[in-house]
Design goal:
The structure is a homodimer. Chain A is α+β, with helices and mostly antiparallel strands and about 140 residues long. Chain A has one domain: HIT-like (HIT family, subunit A). Chain A is about 25% helix and about 20% strand. In chain A, strands 1-2-3-5-4 form a five-stranded antiparallel β-sheet, covered by helices on one side. In chain A, a hairpin with an 8-residue loop joins strand 4 and strand 5. In chain A, helix 1 crosses helix 2. Chain A is globular. Chain A starts with 13 loop residues before the first strand and ends with a helix. The interface between A and B is medium-sized, with 33 and 33 residues.
């Protein structure tokens, strides 16, 4: 069985990338400010990376957090590396709002409401990522 | 309203600490290998920390991950910084097993089963944390 983060079954909405990782729009309904940061190599856990790689991945995660905060002013940012279904190291970076489908619960809890449509300008997000992370490749 | 991570309403089960943060046993039923890493100062988000502090906090989170992996050999580690209820920077570090209450879902999803009792030797965990993080204070 191939890994869907090594060989994506559908084209990903890539927002930014460098030689080591990529930032993709998660495309989750009700969550316009939801990105995933995917490490390129197929490793399972943060501690499977060398310490400088861990620091670099955190730097990218924090760059995404900064871009989302600047653009959307969310009430909270949620960060998570779970990988129970897809054990290829990736981070969820999620801008949270009081009117989103699950707030104040985690997005993996049952939904509390439909959530209001909150538009996100994807090009503005790309530009904010470049501001916080540099041009990428 | 005071912050329960600044002024804990009950004594915490502290496993390790240094001048900047502490590691506590989350005491969650069905999850013996579930720790929280709490940053001492009351800040909301990772990007409210200076970059060296972010790196240090990640180092502690990864030290806890390493200790849990060495001690329990979980099938997966879950890491998360959410804070929707308690917006004081803290990380969940959770050892996951196929027979735990929520696997393969996130622990915030509805439970799938009661989960089997998996004993954890708290003193062995303390010793593993010291091995991976140093003596602390």
């Amino acid at each position: 069985m191939s890994c869907p983060l090594c060989v994506p079954p559908e084209p990903e909405r890539i927002l930014w990338r460098d030689a080591q990782c990529r930032v993709i729009d998660a495309g989750e309904a009700g969550y316009p400010g939801y990105c995933r940061v995917v490490w390129g190599a197929h490793v399972r856990e943060m501690t499977d990376l060398a310490p400088p790689e861990r620091t670099r991945l955190l730097e990218v995660v924090c760059g995404v957090e900064s871009a989302l905060r600047a653009l959307l002013e969310p009430v909270k940012i949620n960060l998570a590396s779970l990988g129970n279904y897809v054990p290829h190291l990736h981070w969820h970076v999620i801008a949270r709002f009081p009117d989103d489908p699950h707030y104040p619960d985690a997005i993996w809890a049952p939904a509390r409401r439909q959530g209001s449509a909150r538009p996100l300008d994807r090009e503005a997000l790309r530009a904010a990522l470049v501001r916080h992370l540099g041009p990428g490749i």
